[in-house]
Hints:
The complex is a heterodimer. Chain A is an alpha+beta fold. Helix content of chain A is about 30%, strand content about 25%.
Amino acid sequence: MQNLPARLALPIKCVVDQEGRLIAADVAIRRLHASNGGRDGGVIAVPGLLDLANLCCQTGLRFERYVYAADKDHDIELWVEAEKKDRNVHLSIIGWQERGTAVLSASPFRTRAGQHVVRNAPQSMQISRSGVVLSASRALLENFGNEFVAYAFDEHFDLIDHPAGFEALLRAPGDIPERVRVRNRSTDVELTALVDLKKSDTEPVVGVHLVFLFPEALPTVGSGTNAEEKHANAGMGLGRHFANAVRQPLGRILANAETIGSELNGPILEQYSSYAKDIASAAKHLSELVGDLEDLDAIDRPEFKVAREPVELGDIARRVSGLLALKAADHQITLISPDEDIKCVVVGEFRRVLQIVLNLVGNAIRYSPGGTRIQIIINPTAATISVEDEGPGIPEEDRERVFTKFERLGRSGDGGSGLGLYISRKLARAMGGELSIETGSAGGARFTLNLPIA
Amino acid sequence: MLCDDLAQLLFPRVQNAPSEAMQASVRLVLQMLVQGIERGLGIEQAEVLPKSWDILCRSGLLREQSLIEFALARIAEEQISRRVNEGRPDKFGQIAAQMIDSKDAMLAQSARNLLVAESAIEWRTPENLTSQMPAELLHLLLWRVVAVFQSGSIGERRDYIKAGNLFLAAHDESRTLSAAAAKLAYFLPDEVRPGLNDPISAGLSLYVSGLAQEFRITHERILRFIDEGPVAPFLTLLRARGSDPKSALSILQYLRGDRGDDYRLALSLEQFESVNVDQARSTVLQWRLGAEATARAG
Lengths: 454, 298
């Protein structure tokens, strides 16, 4: 377990004085000290041990800690006890584990031109192959908030010279320019960034690192930019700005209401807890509505385009089942997904197909009675994916109406917005397919999405 | 007053100030910590608020990043524990329960310490919360509280320094939840180590310690990754560990509960597959370097 070199016997001891100097040590520590560039009688060169010794010296308390050290070509993980005796600190290493190489090793980042880019550049952002922001440096987060991390880059930023967006650009890596001009939608701040493609041996692009230039020009939000006026002048859609503007306060309402409802700060009257849960539920609904409005705004634009990529419907069905199985179980509904061996590859945009099927299954869960089943069925011959429930079904005369905007068929208070099916059909058609409805085998509703075969 | 301080301290220029509920929760944890220390110093507690509270707030003595991070982590820990333990009578991790019978005395003692600490945090009393503090943090807060009383501004004149030294001498950091979990995770035999990847068999604290040691990120920060904000940071950690999407989803649903937006979660999982393990590790490394740089900058 200890992975300890045979010649070492535990515990290994050393003594460090008030100044951090190594004044006595067993051979293993002396060797480690030397391999880290320490000299005889000098300050202990292993940073973790020095920190622990300083802490112990300053507080006079006894510590037991996990310490990392680097030793030539490998890392060592130590378990160290530290105690202050007289004026010195006595360190006793009772655990010594070697690891072949560092668990997290930094590999140099290179631009296509070959020059190094500082990994922790003050203003930088990492974007995945599919266009999602994985991480951003502190300065960007401070200026633009942290709402965009983990979301698609195109949801929060515009590429000024490439209106189709980053995701589209990433599909043709050879055409990606070396610099791009970027506009943050919520602040309207424009920046120029160097594009550093991350490649692997097998993939032309596995991600992108954007390094923003002229960091000193990065203005603080609200300082001198009249964002609203710019939005109006730019004549851009209301939906995106509206969504960006309300998502943050809604998120706060939701978080606050959930915290109050969960009685984190101690018990409160039952009825207040219930009010808080109502507020959380309303905020969640509103948040979903905002998302729908944002989609609505996007798909109604003339420049709206979807990607054309191979999409495996069986994979989509199994992902949706995995995501919604818990929700279905909460409603005492059994969700049945197609067998693993059923495969059907169509052409469409993966995330949009996923969005449609999530919407269909989500609706089915919402409107089906407990004790029933929802089935996701794939027909490889017809290139369709259907969602069939055992609910009351939709009368024939209403079937086209459900695909119109804000149509709820007289329902209310169930958390729906009346936009999901409208958006889903629009998306299906944008991908060259169709979304239709018929009566299922058990009398419920059966929604079928068909898409062009790959 | 303290709330404003907190917002400034945590997010000096960010648009998203912590919610009022979060600030209130942090304040409550800090009050309990101060109360626990005052009780440990033998100071009579007649009022709801600790006696030194007002002075500590006004003088800015609680404006300490490490204190706030400790409080935030305890809030995250409580939220996760509540979700995970709901309806589970056998809520303790199986690994610790298994290790208390180990022939290795140190392993057995670490497992025992962990189980005791897990039981203790069930009861959120000021004393229990104070006993969970890392030694240097307790040292820092204790001497600030002592300074308030020693100045003679409140309370009777006594030798608070002596009481403070006795209090510190009685504190055993190895019995705190994070230290006990860290030690057990470190000394765990190889054949049991794979269990650290499973939050159900490891239990929350040991699972978090496993991640903390693997990625060299603090226990506190991992708890907050799990509980707060978007799922992407936690998914990145899981990817860096080599998890496949199915197990990542089940871990996510177990620890975070079903409170995410399905579509966003689906996108994150799609993303999960497209990020290779090295990329994820490289991202985690950047977080760590960033945190270390911040710590060095003080």
